[in-house]
Design brief:
With about 300 residues, the protein is α+β, with helices and mostly antiparallel strands. It has 7 helices and 15 strands. Helix 3 runs antiparallel to helix 4. Bound molecules: zinc ion.
Length: about 300
């Protein structure tokens, strides 16, 4: 579900108060890594019936995610700070990593949005500039420091994830602690002062010793651990012997297109790839089916 984030309306406290009192308004809830899902119906975020004011304490602390397609307000509540029996009744907490495989694309996006915004508020109660307590503004879009006047916004950290191809092979690595046989494409955070393309080349070199070129953007995915935006790229390589260099990976090597296609098709395979909701899966599937052009 794509919410209307009501960027203009949310600046008006009277309008926000009206939404809180509206019986059509609903509340979704999350912890730092889990979301509340309906226990019975098809997998979707649990929407506690409104008016939201019934569940949300002080109106000036209300966090509005947006308006759904019917125009009803969707608020978010942090279960780390407000454990509420009424809210949890008839629902179950599911880790986002697991929820991601259950939820539709739209509901998964709403879950990521909820966790990212609540996580930011949880750590932003005090001004990073002067240390004074900050106030929620714009129904949760920003926070303001009454002492030094600075406004703080949620941040999104760009991370690159890249499918590096060489002839009919692709570079995959495995992190320590992953389930047996699990491999994925390489990824890493963008450094200050670096372009996305530079980050792709640097991360691949640091993690595998492999040189790549011609990074090309394909698609992106919000990812709330912590508050990242995963930017999916493809890149070309002339090959070489990969080596796990920086301690993050325990193994890195080339896999053939046939091996990847078999794993994607769920055939008996020693190779296990990331779940279908992930951008890594999307890139691998496009590559395996020849839909990434020259890559
Ligand atoms: Zn301040």
């Amino acid at each position: 579900m794509m919410l209307d984030r009501a960027a203009a309306e949310r600046k008006d406290p009277d309008w926000v108060a009206e939404q809180l009192r509206d019986p059509r308004s609903v509340v979704v809830a999350a912890t730092r890594d889990s979301v509340l899902l309906d226990a019975t119906t098809e997998p979707r975020l649990h929407r506690a019936a409104g008016p939201a004011a019934r569940l949300i304490g002080a109106a000036d602390e209300a966090i509005l995610l947006g308006l759904d397609s019917d125009g009803a307000a969707v608020f978010a509540i942090d279960l780390e700070r407000h454990a509420q029996e009424a809210l949890v009744a008839g629902a179950r907490l599911v880790a986002l990593r697991d929820a991601g495989t259950l939820l539709s694309h739209g509901e998964g996006g709403l879950a990521a949005y909820t966790i990212a915004l609540l996580s930011w508020h949880r750590v932003s109660g005090f001004c990073a500039n002067c240390g004074a307590a900050t106030d929620v503004m714009e129904a949760g879009y920003s926070r303001h420091c009454p002492r030094c006047g600075r406004t703080h916004f949620p941040r999104t950290d760009p991370a690159v994830i890249m499918l590096v191809a060489h002839d009919e092979t692709v570079l995959l690595g495995r992190r320590q602690g992953w389930p047996g046989g699990r491999y994925s494409i390489l990824a890493g955070f963008v450094s200050p002062g670096e372009s996305l393309e530079e980050a792709v080349v640097r991360e691949v070199r640091e993690e595998s010793g492999i040189e790549c070129s011609h990074p090309l953007f394909v698609a992106s995915q919000p990812w709330p651990f912590p508050s990242s935006l995963m930017l999916g790229f493809t890149a070309r390589s002339d090959g070489g012997e990969p080596r796990a260099l920086d301690g993050e990976l325990e193994d890195v090597r080339w896999f053939t297109r046939d091996e990847v296609a078999a794993a994607l098709a769920g055939e008996e395979s020693s190779l296990q790839l990331p779940p279908s909701v992930s951008i890594a899966h999307l890139l691998l599937e496009r590559w395996a089916t020849g839909r990434l052009g020259d890559y």
